[in-house]
Recover the amino acids of this structure.
């Protein structure tokens, strides 16, 4: 058993009393079904080109009987429009589809990494494209949005995180997991562009373990939830996953133990995050985490740390720029059942055979950190 | 400096160091004598030099691309964007039938396919310094993975 496995089991033993598991009022099933629009022969299905099979993770919040649905788009990584048109096309497609949801979503959650290099031109492009979304929009930053001007443009355009609001019986929280990088640029006299370049490289050396919630935000989270009943649903949006998935690529927050301690009293917390550009699911103690898709490009599953509960997606076809990416929505029906759906532009989302799985290589794949950027 | 079919006109410093140690020049005595520690270090330095160049190219470094006369992307993408740590490049599975190319391919063929299609760059000469450097970095980053050619 790897060190990571041992650590996770230890955390689970500490955080979860024997016999305890995520709230029974929140049930989890997985099923695959044909897109409803196909069964009704709606013309819109033809736009997909294929017959999309939607694989869903159904999460039912039994305690709230109100219906709501929200859409999630993240990781658009936009360059200026004329420089990279593919990323614009993919974002536009996701935005159009999210806006076309019928009945409409209650709000759109934008999960970070709107720009690629934090450029105000890129952020403005993202904002312009998102004008197509007429419902209310909420934003959390990604590291690509932040490190050119340390969030100045982002905060001005999209507001500061963290924030919170209650919606139909659910307390919703948006965190900033990206602004707490340790300063590697001042001592090296890097320009803003150079700093952004290093932070924009997922496997870059200098950024180190930049992802964190931070003490101030943890205190805020604690007080924000303090008057919320312990068994009522909470949704926490974050750019990075709130557990230790794969630290070398900042598929974590470095203070995840403290986050779990803060959330521990609450029996019904779901963390929804971006950054990983792949479907991923995990439970540690009572906290569930769902990783959503990027619109821009997919990442491979890392060589270790893929949660056992994750059903990996079918590995991506590099010849199709629209494969392995997409958006998602979380919806709750009037009976309290909630579907979390990955909207991918392909026939099937999840692999059933090892040969098709994005994790198929991992038994044999040994990787190492890069050398050329150690300045 | 434009691309040349004969490779870069400048000899990389690692190879220069080897020449200074008398390796590669004149009659080859090296196989009759034990390698010295200095020689082994020089081999390793020459290797790591190519790893670093390949690392820079793999991560889209503009200066290195210019110096070697290659354009790996015209849309700002770099290999490392889809392949952090050169993950999912599975060099140990080549040569194999490569679905996307509808052809039997070596790693170098796949590198060129990726440069052209997902990265929207210009294909490079398979015997060029740039190709060797990219191949070196990809193999180095996947070192100790088990050789498994022909795996889909």
């Amino acid at each position: 058993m790897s060190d990571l496995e041992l650590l996770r089991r230890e955390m689970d033993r500490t955080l979860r009393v024997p016999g305890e598991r995520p709230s029974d009022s929140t049930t989890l099933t997985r099923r695959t079904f044909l897109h409803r629009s196909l069964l009704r022969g709606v013309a819109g299905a033809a736009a997909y080109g294929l017959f999309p099979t939607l694989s869903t993770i159904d999460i039912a919040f039994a305690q709230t009987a109100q219906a709501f649905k929200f859409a999630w788009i993240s990781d658009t990584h936009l360059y200026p429009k004329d420089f990279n048109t593919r990323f614009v096309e993919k974002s536009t497609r996701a935005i159009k589809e999210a806006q076309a949801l019928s009945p409409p979503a209650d709000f759109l959650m934008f999960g970070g990494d709107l720009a690629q290099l934090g450029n105000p031109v890129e952020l403005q492009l993202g904002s312009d494209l998102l004008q197509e979304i007429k419902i209310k929009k909420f934003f959390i930053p990604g590291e690509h949005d932040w490190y050119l001007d340390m969030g100045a443009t982002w905060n001005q355009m999209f507001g500061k995180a963290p924030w919170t609001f209650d919606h139909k019986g659910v307390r919703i929280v948006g965190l900033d997991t990206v602004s707490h990088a340790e300063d590697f640029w001042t001592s090296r006299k890097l320009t803003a562009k150079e700093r952004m370049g290093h932070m924009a490289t997922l496997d870059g050396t200098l950024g180190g373990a930049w992802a964190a919630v931070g003490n101030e935000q943890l205190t805020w989270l604690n007080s924000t939830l303090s008057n919320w009943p312990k068994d009522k649903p909470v949704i926490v949006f974050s750019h990075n996953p709130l557990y230790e998935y794969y630290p070398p690529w900042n598929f974590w927050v470095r203070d995840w133990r403290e986050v779990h301690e803060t959330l521990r009293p609450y029996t019904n917390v779901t963390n929804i995050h971006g950054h990983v550009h792949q479907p991923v699911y995990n439970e540690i103690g009572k906290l569930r985490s769902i990783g959503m898709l990027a619109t821009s490009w997919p990442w491979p599953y890392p060589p270790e740390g893929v949660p056992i509960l994750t059903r990996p997606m079918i590995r991506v076809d590099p010849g199709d720029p629209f494969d392995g990416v997409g958006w998602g929505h979380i919806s709750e029906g009037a009976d309290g059942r909630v579907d979390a759906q990955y909207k991918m532009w392909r026939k099937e989302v999840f692999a059933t055979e090892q040969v098709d799985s994005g994790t198929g290589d991992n038994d044999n794949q040994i990787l190492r950190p890069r050398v050329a950027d150690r300045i | 400096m434009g691309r040349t079919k004969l490779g870069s006109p400048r000899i990389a410093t690692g190879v220069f160091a080897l020449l200074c140690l008398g390796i590669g020049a004149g009659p080859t005595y090296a196989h009759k004598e034990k390698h010295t520690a200095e020689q082994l270090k020089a081999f390793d330095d020459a290797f790591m030099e190519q790893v670093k160049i390949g690392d820079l190219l793999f991560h889209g470094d503009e200066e290195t691309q210019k110096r070697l006369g290659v354009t790996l992307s015209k849309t700002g993408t770099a290999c490392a964007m889809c392949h952090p740590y050169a993950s999912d490049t599975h060099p140990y599975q080549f040569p194999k039938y490569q679905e996307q190319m509808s052809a039997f391919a070596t790693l170098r063929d796949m590198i060129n396919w990726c440069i052209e299609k997902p990265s929207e760059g210009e294909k490079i000469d398979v015997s060029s310094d740039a190709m060797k450097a990219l191949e070196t970095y990809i193999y180095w980053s996947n070192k100790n993975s088990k050789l498994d050619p022909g795996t889909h």
